[in-house]
Amino acid sequence: MASTRILVVNPNTTAAMTATIESCAAAAAGPGTTVTAVTPSMGPVSIESHYDEALAVPGLLAEIARAEEEGSADGYVIACFGDPGLDAARELARGPVVGIAEAAMRTAAYLGRGFSVVTTLERTTGRAEDLAAHYGLARFCRRVRACDIGVLALEEPGARDAVLAECARAVAEDGCDAVVLGCAGMADLCREISAKIGVPVVDGVAAATRTVETLVALGLRTGDRGEFARPPAKPYTGLLRDFQVR
User: What is the per-residue pLDDT for 69?
Assistant: First the structure.
């Protein structure tokens, strides 16, 4: 039986975070699944604004286009809680593409009447709220909370305790049945926090990896008859000249 090959793309350019993401995705994957995580060659070192997110997309798409050309992946995970470039990636890829925010929120919705999201900076909470509405999950989302820690500061002393404390407040104050970790950089905190706060904690990296596995096993992919058909070939100019779809 052939192995399922999942490419996990960290849309920022911090290799240490990519290594953490790969470890967590591989731990979640089932037998016979090979997980590879990649860091784009261009983009921001962290994604903490709409500007960051927009400029992360070209590097993300370049990684997916490369894997498609090589035939090296059966499905893809976008490992940033803003799900940047998700629709464009689905146009490029033959296999399924899943973003960690969508996967985490959908998974959490199976676990009770409501979930809260704990993310990094306050300025990113609106994006998470918008995604919950976009995915039809707003009625499940009790609240989006920020612990006001930058993405790259998640490895600093005290960060884990701050995330844990905000998750505990979510359980105490929001009436939620589950907590969603709102950053790929929090993926390795999932089990520890769940054990301490007494409710399920969902990491989107793990949830998306398992979702892609299931879709591939079922022989399913994004439909391509209309909106998600391959982009029409046309010239791109300047810095984007190499992004022309062939």
Answer: 97
